[in-house]
Amino acid sequence: MPGKTGGENQQASSQDGGDSKLKCKYTEIDPEPPASAGEPWKGADPKKSDLYFYSCWDTTKPAGEQQQNLDGFVVVPQGQPPAPQVDPQELAQQAVDSMTLLGPDIASPKAAGKYTVGVPMWMWVNQSATAYGPNTASASAGGITVTATAKVSKIVWEMGDGSSVTCNGPGTPYQASEGMAQSPTCGHVYSKTSGGSQGGKYLVTATSTWTIDWQGGGAAGQLTEVRQTNVQVAIGELQVVR
Q1: Among candidate residues 117, 126, 109, the one with its CA nearest the CA of residue 231
Q2: Virtual CA dihedral for 45, 49, 50, 56, nearest 10 degrees?
């Protein structure tokens, strides 16, 4: 059973621009269980090692919401203090950083496309692990492994004419058989030409929000990343043939 108090250690890390602090309390196990106990010792020699039980919690939460989110046993060389435990959120961010998440891979509109006032424009993106998801990666440290899975949850299109369109999916590719129909999932209709804009084109900006679910080390959570891609498109007038 836990006996002597091994003291408290605090590890700070930055998460999404804010401070995330993991505070851990260590209690040395005395008397120690025999080597035959197996799991707590993780193969270490009890004669040359000390065994601690640790419990950690996020100090950035209000006192009433501070919940233990990480606990377990740690083995250290005899006489040495235990090292601070790894913050699972920090490992989650490391996993996300290794994914190389990108902005939307815009399939439509195209820079070389010809678009017309009053004619529905269909917007959609190509789907891949780095540009849309799902994308999964893991990171490990201090005996903890955290796995994160990222997927684009929405794309906001700034159309360059002062309007914006929010699409909760990749959009629907246009087929010639659709004629003048509007996109069922992600589209826009321009009411004026791009002639008065810089370079005679509208700057269309697609901003994707990546939602990342992670778990590991006795904890779980969600992170958000934002990426952006631009394309310039020309919008002309409908030509009437007489």
Answers
A1: 109
A2: -90
Q: How is residue 24 written in tokens? A: 């851990």
Read off the tokens for 129: 């692990």
Region for residue 142 given its phi and psi (left: phi exceeds 0; alpha: psi -120 to 50; beta: otherwise): left
pLDDT digits (tens, 9 = 90+) for 149-202: 999 999 999 999 999 999 999 999 999 999 999 999 999 999 999 998 989 999
Within a 10 A sphere around the Cβ of 173, how many other Cβ atoms? 13
Q: Count of alpha carbons within 13 Å of 138, Cβ hemisphere only?
A: 10
Instruction: Flag residues of the chain having pLDDT under 70.
Output: 1-22, 58, 60-70, 83-85, 142-143, 239-242
Please provide the DSSP assignment of 84-151 as one string.
Answer: PPPPHHHHHHHHHHTT-----EEEES-TT--EETTSPEE-EEE--TTTT--EEEEEEETTEEEEEEEE
Indicate the SS3 state at residue 179: coil
Query: How far does CA 58 lie from the centroid of its chain?
Result: 19
Look at residue 84 in the predicted model and tell me its pLDDT.
65
Helix (H, G, I), strand (E, B) or coil at 219: strand
Contacts of 80 (CB under 8 A, 6+ apart): 50
Three-state secondary structure call for residue 46:
coil
Tell me how crowded residue 137 is: count the other CB atoms within 10 A of its CB: 20
